[in-house]
Structures are given as C-alpha cells and as structure tokens.
Design brief:
749 residues, alpha/beta, FAD/NAD(P)-binding domain, TIM Barrel, 20% strand
C-alpha cells in the first residue's frame, strides 16, 4: 500500500510505525515542512490509562517514550493562600521534542520516508496514493481543500491563553488562581522533563486587554507573566516558544474521510487542554486507523470503520472538554466557594470524574470534603446529629423555610396519564407512595392542572374540583404516615400543548376528536397541524390566575409540603416567557421584563395565598435550544426576578418549548444551568436531566452545582433507588416498621 502522511506530528509518526510493523512492505512517506526539533510547545501529558493503551499498541515505542517521562500522582490547587492537594491521579509528561525524536528515530528505523522541508499546497498531487492521511494539525491544508466534504465547524472561545515554559520543576499538576488589578489569572502547570515544566496562563478577554497584553510582544508577555507570578516561579524564569496569546478553537467535522483521504488529530478534532492533550487524541487516532486498515483490506471500508470506532470516544471527550473550558471561562463565578468545595468543583468540572472516582483515588481528600459538606448542611438545616461520621452529601438535610428534607434526593414530577377528569387514583397512590417509602427526601406529584381546560391530555391529574382535594390528601397522608419523605405539588396549565393524546398514544399529538378550546400567549400552534390556541386577553389572564390561586389553596388543604409552579417546557406560563412562543405587541410581549409580567403576576397571587412558612419553587426552561429562543443568560435573569418575588428554589430544566428544538443531550446535560443560576443569582436550585447514579448526585451536591437532585427515569426503573444508593455507600437508612427486619442487614462498606 502506498501511504502519504501530510504533516509530521505524533499522529503521522505513530501511525506509520504501526503500519510498518504490521506490513513492512507498505510504502509510507511523511511530508513535514518544519524540522521535528522546531516543534511548537513544550510538553505533553498522558494519563496512566492512555499509557496502558500505548504500551499495548507498540511496547518498543512506548518503552522509548517512557524513558523520558516525568511522572506525578498529585494535583495541587493554590487558592486563597492555601494549597489543596488531591492524590492518586497518575499522569506522565514528556517534552514534545523528545516525543518527536523518539517517534522519528523509530519510524526511520522501520523504513518510513520522512521528507522534512516539504510543504504541501495541493493535496490533490497525491491522488495516486492508496491513502492520504491528513495529520497537518489545526490549520490543516487538507481539511481546507476538501472543506465541502468534511464540513468543518469551528467554535472560537472567549478566553485568552499563552503557552509558556519554565525552569521550575513542579512536583504536581498545579493550578494557580491569582487576582491582580486587571482581573483573575489561571495557571495550568506541569513538569514534562527534569528541570522543565509547561506553564499555561489563561484569563478573560477583558482582563487581557486591561493589562495591555493585546499590544504586547512575545518578550513583553514573558516579562508581564514573570512579574505577575514572581512568587509562584520561586526565582525561575519563563521560557517562550512562539508564545503568543490565543483563543482556543474547538474543531469538529461532519465527516472524517473523503475518498482515500482521512483526517486525524487536530485536523479532525480539538479538545481543550484542561481535559487532555491533543497529542493523546492524535496518537489514539493513529492506533484506531492502523487497526482498521489491518482488519479491512478495502481502504474506504477501513476509513468508515475507523470513524465509527473513534468518533463516539472523541465526541465524548469533546463534550467533557466543553464543560471544562467553560469552567475556566467562568472561574470568577466560583471564587466565593470555600476551599474544600472549590477544589472538589475544579476536580469534577468535566463531569468525567465523580465523587466515587475521587474517593477511589484519594479517600482522605473526599472524606474531608464530605465532612465539610455535612457541617454546612447541619448549619443550613439547623438539624444537629449525635454522631460525627460524615454522611454522603446526598444524605444530608436541607431546609426551605420551615420545611426540612431528610436528604437531597427528589422524585421528579412524571405525568402518568391515567386520571379521569383530573382525579388521582390508586395508581397515583402506589406510584408516589412506593417512591416515598423508597427513601427519597422529596416526592413530586405529576404536573397537576389548575383547570379542566389546562390539562395536557384527558388522563392528566388536576386540582380544580372539590373531590380532588380528598383524593390528593389520601396520597399525602400516606406519604407522611409511612415515610420520612415530604411531598410537593406541581401546578401547571398546558396552554397550547393542551388537548393532546396520552404519552404512549402520541406525545404532544392533538387528539383525533373531543378537543377542547386552548389558550396561549400568542396564537401559535405547537406543530403546524396542531390546534391553534387563542391569544389570551387580560380577562383570560385573570381567570387563569384565579385558577392557580384556587388550586394552591386546595393543595394546602390537601397537606402538601411544597408548591411548585410549572413555568417550563412550553406550557402556558412558559409560553409567555420564551420569545419563540410570545409574539405579543402589548405590555406582556417584547422585552423579557414584559414577558415575565404575567408569570410573575400568577406567582405573586399564589405566594400570597400559600402559607408563609411553606416554601415555593418554580420550574423553568433554562434554554430553548432553538435559534432566537431563551438562552442561559436569560434564565439567570428569570431566576433573579423569581427570587425577588419570594421564590425559594428554582427547578432548572430546559427545552421542550418548540417542536423543532435541537437539545444537546449528555450526562447531567442540564446541571450546568442550575450551577450558573445558583452562583450568579444566589438562589437554591434543583438539578435535573440525565442524573442516574448516586455518584452523580454526590458530585453535583459536593461541588455546589445544585442543592437538590431531581431524578425521573431512575425512579421509574427502581422506586427504591435511594435505599439502594444508601446500601451501596454503607449508609444506614432506616426502614419503615413493616419492613423493620431489613434493618438487621448492614449496608456495604
């Protein structure tokens, strides 16, 4: 096979080594315009897991690389004059020059042809090759030449960073967070060889400009950073190597191959340096590509297989990198956190490391975090314990007004669609009662509608008839008598999403017959073929407000502990908030303040009618995931208004506003919205969205991303989810008297 690699970085070299090892008769040429020793940057980092992959792929090459490694297990976080250390992480660094030298020597020894000084201008000149590997990096000529086929996208981030080196040998992966008169500066530092470390300085665009660094030369940048970090450098100097200030750019491609051309490394994708090195990704690409070509004799089939194997792993890392880079863009938000929580928040920022992962690596660190969190929970809830062993964060108490929850696990509102004329029945009793016995601290009713016309479907529960109070009270009393859980009522009005079929018949699909009139902020149907709602008049608003107030008073009569108003997911109150569903030209449309006017009017009326000692929450959609819709910054403003009106906690969801939304799903995909609102507004939050493990719950809470965690599908699968989580963590959660024999079984430790 005739192979041409455009670019002579680690991906091309490692790929060539593997291919030559597999089939020495392959004719492989690497075209590189620069000398290998002229490489940009200082050091690269490999985790222990990555090193295991490299050792398995080619032991001889790995051993040559490992002879240059500087290894460390610790992460040091310098914050508020303290050094917080977390151990057991396992990384190795090495000089980029040393890496390229090792790979260059190894590839030449195997017969690879390295043409140094050759600049590729037209990749089409190599059309006669069986395979062209585009390993030409971030500014890929190959990708640009075939852009119509690869369809690249580039997301340039706002922060500025500069890649420097230093002669100070840092003993751990080190983070500094330092303020000066210009703003907050972040440093990522690690040793990559004896006597040398990488020293990356990062800050916001405003701080960078305020410091005059937008006009600084490379030498002036070095001088500024040496002066700023004089104490941290301990007399050592900073080193430069094309050290100019940059914005990080996330690169993605719709396709990684075109004909006989394939992208690898930074040509195909980038991931922020705070999560993993581009070199790691590039070498893993090389391993996967070589493996696919060895399994598949047909090149195009092999390229398809390569992309199918690598893309999920790369996109997963890119999602983690996106969350991580946003953390560093928004670090100012977390500078008020106490040191234990700040450190834990930093270490778990990408969502790939959990409370449980850290506990395995450094149990002492996690124990200190848990003890701190437990102490804060005692102060916040005013609930004192007789023992002093730290509980897992999810089992600490939480107070809202006079309501004290025994733990932080919440059963999400989940529509069941089995009521008749709004009446809850035995199904609802078993559904909610079993989950209360299952150990959750708070159990939510499904979205319960304030009027018959406000129901999503004919099977939705309501609180609009006197008979509903007694039916709901039966459920509330069962929860109170037989469990330690509290129970919340979620009140809503479906608006333009009313008069639709039950979920299993067709989600949001209009009823085939028997429709009732529907209303919304504007006369816009949900689907083009959906029923067109009436645009509400002021008289309609007054009637709906009265319905909400009546339903709230009935909910109090039924004994509910907390009341939540549903202002999310495109239902009636949400339809006023989003500009996609509110196109009014009166005082209830236009600006966000105007769009919030009616939802706040309803909230104020309900808050006045709901007992002062009982808390209220509001569910909001933090983002519409659609062009010109609500954005996370808008949800911060919404939460701030709600707090000013007496809301105690926001239940932060997202989307479901319009039918053509494009949600960005992933693990804990909505938690960052709750995190932002909690810190920027200073209001308690509930996190929702693909939270499924107790590790996730403990991580979210200990990091301060939310105060409560709301789980839906996990509780559908396992009503006793909370009790099983307690057992797995070695925490004793007492059973109700009828199940008292289970108290003799000790949980795992």
């Amino acid at each position: 096979m005739k192979i041409v690699c455009v670019g002579g970085g680690p991906a091309a070299l490692y790929f060539s080594i593997l291919m030559k090892k597999a089939h020495p008769r392959h004719e492989i040429t690497i075209l590189e315009r620069n000398r290998l020793e002229d490489t940009f940057g200082f050091g690269v980092v490999f985790s222990d897991a990555t090193q295991n992959n490299l050792a398995a792929a080619d032991p001889e090459t790995y051993d040559a690389m490992a002879s240059h490694f500087a290894h460390w297990d610790d992460i040091d976080i310098h914050y508020r004059g303290l050094v917080i250390t977390s151990r057991g992480h396992g990384f190795s660094g090495l000089s980029r020059q040393a890496l390229l030298k090792v790979l260059g020597v190894r590839s030449r020894a195997l017969g690879v042809c390295l043409e140094v000084g050759t600049e590729v201008i037209d990749p089409g000149a190599y059309a006669d090759a069986d395979l062209v590997v585009a390993a030409d990096g971030f500014n890929s000529i190959v990708r640009a030449t075939y852009a119509d086929h690869f369809q690249p996208s580039m997301d340039e981030r706002p922060n500025r960073f500069v890649w420097l080196g230093t002669t100070r040998p840092f003993p751990a992966f080190t983070f500094y967070f330092k303020r000066d008169k210009h703003g907050l500066w972040r440093v990522h530092a690690y040793q990559y060889e004896h006597g040398h470390s990488t020293f990356i300085v990062e800050t916001t665009e405003p701080a960078w400009r305020k410091a005059g660094l937008d006009q600084a030369s490379e030498n002036e940048t070095v001088a500024f950073c040496e002066a700023l970090f004089k104490e941290e450098l301990q007399g050592h100097r900073l080193l430069k190597n094309r050290s100019v200030w940059r914005n990080f750019v996330t690169i993605k491609n719709a396709s990684w191959s075109h004909g006989n051309v394939v992208l690898v490394g930074d040509a195909a994708h980038t991931a922020h340096f705070s999560v993993g090195s581009g070199t790691k990704l590039a070498i893993e690409d090389a391993i996967a590509l070589a493996g696919a070509l060895q399994r598949q004799p047909d090149v195009r089939t092999a390229l398809t297989e390569y992309e199918a194997e690598r893309r999920p792993a790369v996109e997963s890392l890119q999602r983690a990198a996106q969350v991580s880079l946003q953390w560093f863009e928004e670090t100012e938000r977390y500078m008020s956190l106490e040191p234990p929580q700040f450190a834990f928040n930093l270490l778990t920022r990408s969502l790939r490391i959990t409370h449980d992962n850290l506990k395995m690596r450094d149990p002492g660190f996690v124990e200190r975090v848990d003890q701190w969190y437990d102490q804060q929970a005692e102060k916040q809830s005013n609930v004192r314990r007789t023992t002093h062993d730290a509980r897992p964060p999810m089992f600490t108490p939480f107070r809202l007004r006079d309501l004290v929850l025994s733990n932080r696990v919440v059963v999400s509102p989940m529509c069941q669609y089995v009521a008749e004329d709004g009446m809850p029945n035995e199904w609802h009793l078993v559904h909610l009662g079993s989950r209360a016995i299952g150990g959750a601290g708070l159990v939510f009713s499904e979205m319960t509608d304030v009027s018959r016309e406000g129901r999503i479907s004919p099977g939705c529960t309501g609180m609009y008839k006197p008979e509903h109070v007694a039916a709901w009270k039966r459920i509330v009393d069962f929860v109170h008598v037989n469990s330690s859980a509290k129970i919340a009522m979620q009140l809503g009005h479906a608006g333009r999403k009313a008069s639709t079929q039950r979920m299993w018949e067709g989600m949001d699909e209009p009823l085939p017959d028997g429709n009732w009139p529907i209303i919304s902020a504007s006369a816009l149907p949900y689907f083009p073929y959906s029923q067109v709602p009436k645009e509400m008049t002021r008289a309609d608003m007054d009637e709906v407000k009265t319905d909400f107030l009546r339903a709230a008073e009935m909910s109090n009569e039924a004994g509910f502990d907390l009341l939540e108003l549903h202002m999310a997911h495109g239902y009636l109150l949400a339809s006023f908030i989003s500009p996609l569903t509110n196109q009014r030209t009166d005082e209830y449309g236009g600006s966000l303040e105007n769009r919030m006017r009616f939802p706040l009017d309803v909230f104020d009326a309900v808050r006045a009618g709901w007992p002062a000692h009982k808390p209220m929450s509001v569910r909001i959609s933090a983002v519409d995931w659609a062009p010109r819709g609500m954005q996370p910054a808008d949800s911060v403003a919404v939460a701030r208004m709600l707090k000013e009106h007496g809301c105690d906690i926001t239940d932060v969801s997202a989307g479901q506003t319009v039918a053509d939304a494009k949600p960005q799903y992933g693990r804990q995909f909505q938690t960052p919205f709750a995190d932002r609102i909690r810190h920027e507004v200073g209001i308690a939050t509930m996190a929702v969205g693909n939270i499924s493990s107790y590790q996730d719950v403990n991580t979210i809470l200990a990091a301060g991303r939310a105060d409560l965690c709301v789980l839906a599908r996990a509780h559908l699968w396992d009503p006793y989810w909370t009790r099983h989580a307690a057992y797995e963590q070695g925490y004793q959660l007492p059973w109700p008297d009828p199940y008292a024999t289970l108290n003799r079984y000790r949980p795992r430790t």
